[in-house]
Design goal:
Blueprint (H helix, E strand, L loop, with lengths): L2 E4 L3 H11 L5 H19 L5 E7 L4 E7 L4 E7 L6 H7 L4 E2 L1 E6 L6 E7 L8 E5 L2 E2 L3 H12 L4 E9 L1 H10 L4 E7 L2 E2 L5 E2 L5 H6 L3
Parallel strand pairs: 1-11, 4-5, 4-6, 4-8, 8-10, 9-10, 10-11
Antiparallel strand pairs: 2-3, 6-7, 12-13
Helix pairs in contact: 1-2, 2-3
The structure holds 1-O-pyrophosphono-5-O-phosphono-alpha-D-ribofuranose and uracil (URA).
The site of 1-O-pyrophosphono-5-O-phosphono-alpha-D-ribofuranose has 24 residues, from strand 4, strand 6, strand 9, helix 4 and helix 6.
């Protein structure tokens, strides 16, 4: 199995709990997804390489640690993944953003592709694929298939809520990727929705339905 980490930071746990409540408004839901995206991004970038740089403070010359400038790509799975992009970009403003458009067929629950556009140099970048929900895993598996077909290699998948079924499907199909999760839930229901979950992330984020 690939590397799977469930974040236990209290702020991430608290904000994820607020996200789940059915009375949370569209505006608050959107704000929370952005904030959790940023908090998870902060943890996820912990291992970015540093390099020594010579600078001058007002007092004297010195050597400090600065980011070595590893190139990053953020790839949201449309639509709901878009909600996590701004939080990530506030931490790594120079990152490029690719998009994978997928929706789940309501009958088969299989992902249907409608859009895919990646930064041209995707093969050189550290890639963060973001989507709030990992349910059956079909969408995440398909998105990572597309990214790998276009040369992407160094891939981390970041989601807010994951079902055990989705974690299994994703890590078995793509054992080389890292999976970062805010909360691991119990199971899927008969319509492949996560329990207890938060409902339909795209609808709650954009106020549709
Ligand atoms: C949701 C979610 C994931 C997918 C997860 O998107 O944002 O992409 O479902 O389910 P899976 O693991 O079973 O594939 P949805 O298909 O509802 O599309 P939307 O974001 O456009 O609403
Ligand atoms: N997609 C969602 O938005 N929610 C779920 O619970 C499952 C898939």
């Amino acid at each position: 199995m690939g590397k799977v980490y469930v974040f236990d930071h209290p702020l991430i746990q608290h904000k994820t709990a607020m996200l789940r409540r059915e009375e949370t408004t569209t505006k608050d839901f959107r704000d929370l997804v952005k904030e959790i995206g940023m908090l998870m991004g902060y943890e996820a970038t912990r291992d970015l390489p540093l390099k020594k740089v010579g600078i001058k403070t007002p007092m004297c010359p010195t050597e400090v640690d600065m980011l070595a400038g590893e190139d990053i790509a953020i790839v949201p799975i449309l639509r709901a993944g878009l909600g996590m992009v701004d939080g990530m970009l506030s931490l790594v403003p120079n990152a490029k953003v690719g998009h994978v458009g997928l929706y789940r067929d309501p009958e088969t629950h299989k992902p249907v592709e409608y859009y895919c556009k990646m930064p041209q140099d995707i093969e050189k970048r550290k890639i963060f694929v973001v989507d709030p929900m990992l349910a059956t895993g079909g969408s995440a598996v398909a998105a990572i298939d597309f990214i790998k077909e276009r040369g992407g290699r160094d891939i981390t998948f970041m989601c807010l809520i994951a079902a055990p079924e989705g974690i299994k499907a994703l890590t078995e199909t793509h054992p080389d990727i890292e999976v970062l999760i805010a909360a691991k839930d119990e199971r899927l229901n008969e319509n492949a929705y996560i329990l207890p979950g938060l409902g339909d992330a795209g609808d709650r984020l954009y106020g549709t339905k």
